[in-house]
Design goal:
By secondary structure, the protein is mostly helical. It has one domain (5-349). The chain is built from 18 helices and no strands.
Length: 388
């Protein structure tokens, strides 16, 4: 598959037909409040749906209650083991590379502002972390898991945002296309997959080809469950690199919303880290992972740590070598990584489970115009030449 400016522009016109139709009907019939109230009690796969649930919602939940038929479960298990092996590094990549990469896209920063506001980045980060942890549990797709209901609700959340923005005439569809369109949904998949892998590579994390490919595969499965049209989604890491490079160069740039969201993100993690000595490390790490141009667009401050943080790959490389060569060291580091991830997520959620719901209105004050072999180390696909 070859992506072009024209093919990506076509994807800006498409949403998610199934979820959009479901949400439109719920609003037309005044059933959104009933749906949200009842669905707070539906949190695990296989759970009996409550009486009184609107029929259109029941039909949607039945249709989306299972992963795609083409899932390779061996690949999903490899992805889970990759996550266990690298969970703290993946959390770091999501927090300090993927989220700022979202903010460097002005139209995405505007969308995030409408749904969560400029003052509550912890909610977005908590939802992201919780969703990823649900996905990488061994029972993620079995009865009793929390992942499938979370995916179903996130898909409806996206559809409700499209519904509000178009109905309230708060989105320039002629200029920007459909809000949370197929291009942006695939772009989001890239943030969670290849851009995370890129950040791990920059940090010096040891990854095999098999591990990187399996991790990307898992997010392909997630993308399908969130309504991404698989006819247009990248099928492998080479295609992902081509899409990601073209997508970012089409849209990235400075914006007031992006800078504000980034400042809130930095403040959030400075609060999570005890004391103030290491506070500048947050900004330095973001700048190191996304580069000076994007960091300047997002007004990431320069700090005394900017040079020191460049030693991170060497330091992490020592730990990775210990993990490669010592089963006990691997166990200890994996356990430490797990505990660090749990601490970070509990700090963001304040120990509460995050609930996904269909918003009945948007913010009015903002006007939107391992066991995997470590041989054959993975190297990111090279950059593509865009605009041709």
């Amino acid at each position: 598959m070859v992506y072009t400016e024209q093919s990506l522009q076509a994807l800006r016109q498409a949403g998610d037909e199934l979820a959009d139709a479901t949400v439109a009907t719920l609003f037309e019939r005044g059933e959104v409040g009933t749906f949200n109230t009842l669905m707070r009690y539906v949190s695990t796969a296989g759970q009996e749906l409550p009486d009184g649930l609107p029929e259109v919602a029941r039909a949607y939940l039945d249709e989306t209650s299972a992963p795609p038929s083409w899932v390779d479960w061996d690949e999903m298990e490899k992805a889970r083991l990759f996550f266990i092996d690298n969970n703290v590094h993946i959390s770091t990549a999501l927090s300090f590379a993927s989220m700022p990469a979202c903010y460097v896209l002005p139209h995405v920063a505007k969308l995030l502002s409408t749904t969560h506001g400029l003052s509550y980045p912890s909610k977005r980060m908590a939802e992201t972390g919780q969703f990823t942890v649900y996905l990488m549990r061994p029972d993620a797709f079995e009865a009793g898991s929390r992942f499938i209901p979370a995916a179903q609700k996130v898909r409806l959340l996206h559809a409700s945002i499209r519904h509000h923005l178009r109905r309230e005439n708060r989105w320039d569809t002629e200029k920007l296309g459909t809000p949370i369109c197929q291009e942006d949904m695939i772009g989001g998949q890239m943030m969670f997959s290849i851009q995370v892998l890129d950040a791990l590579h920059r940090l010096g994390i040891h990854m095999s080809d098999e591990g990187a490919e399996s991790y990307f595969y898992a997010w392909r499965v997630v993308g399908a469950m969130l309504g991404i049209d698989q006819a247009h989604a990248p099928q492998d890491l080479d295609q992902a690199r081509q899409f990601s490079d073209l997508y970012m160069t089409r849209h990235m740039g400075p914006s007031e919303e992006g800078a504000h969201l980034t400042r809130q993100l930095i403040d959030l993690f400075e609060e999570v880290v005890p004391g103030s000595l290491f506070d500048p490390l947050v900004s330095a790490l973001i700048r190191y992972l996304i580069g000076d141009t994007c960091a300047d667009w997002l007004q990431v401050p320069r700090t005394r740590w900017d040079t020191a943080v460049k030693a991170a790959p060497a330091l992490l490389g020592i730990l990775e070598t210990i993990e490669d060569n010592s089963p006990l060291g691997a166990w200890a580091l994996d356990r430490l990584g797990h505990l660090t991830t749990v601490f970070e997520l509990s700090s963001l959620t304040r120990g509460r489970v995050m609930h996904y719901a269909i918003p009945e209105h948007l913010r009015k004050e903002y006007d939107v115009s391992s066991t995997i072999p470590r041989t054959r180390r993975w190297t990111p696909p090279g950059p593509t030449v865009v605009g041709h």
